[in-house]
Amino acid sequence: MYSDKVIDHFTNPRNVGVIIDADGVGEKVSASCGDRMKVFLKVVDGVIEDLKFQTYGCGAAIASSSMMSELVIGKTLDEALALTNDAVAEALDGLPDPKLHCSNLAADALHDAIKNYKEEGA
Ligand code: FES
Ligand code: FES
Q1: Which of 8, 68, 69, 72 has its CA 20 to 30 A from that of 84?
Q2: Where do the NIF system FeS cluster assembly NifU N-terminal domain residues begin and end (predicted)?
């Protein structure tokens, strides 16, 4: 049912945690299932230098967060804003249909954190 990449990122998630002095913090709660994700950003010269996340959710949501973190660390804020939910699911070699909403959490929480960073004017 799950691709090898999903299982890898679920059992060994990258970049789990909190950044205490984060430059931007975002959160997304899934309307479908109530799972939630928090994203913490460290931004230097418009580039995401570090990202940590906390996900209270299913395996697909954790795998999506982990993949999202790998996709955007080292990227500019504009590149990160262009990351779509579909791109996260594709990078995981797909998710089963009932689990597609889980990948939405990752990109949405990321975009919320970037919005927060911009509002703070850090
Ligand atoms: Fe909430 Fe996935 S339904 S854990
Ligand atoms: Fe709801 Fe995965 S985030 S089931």
Answers
A1: 8
A2: 1-119
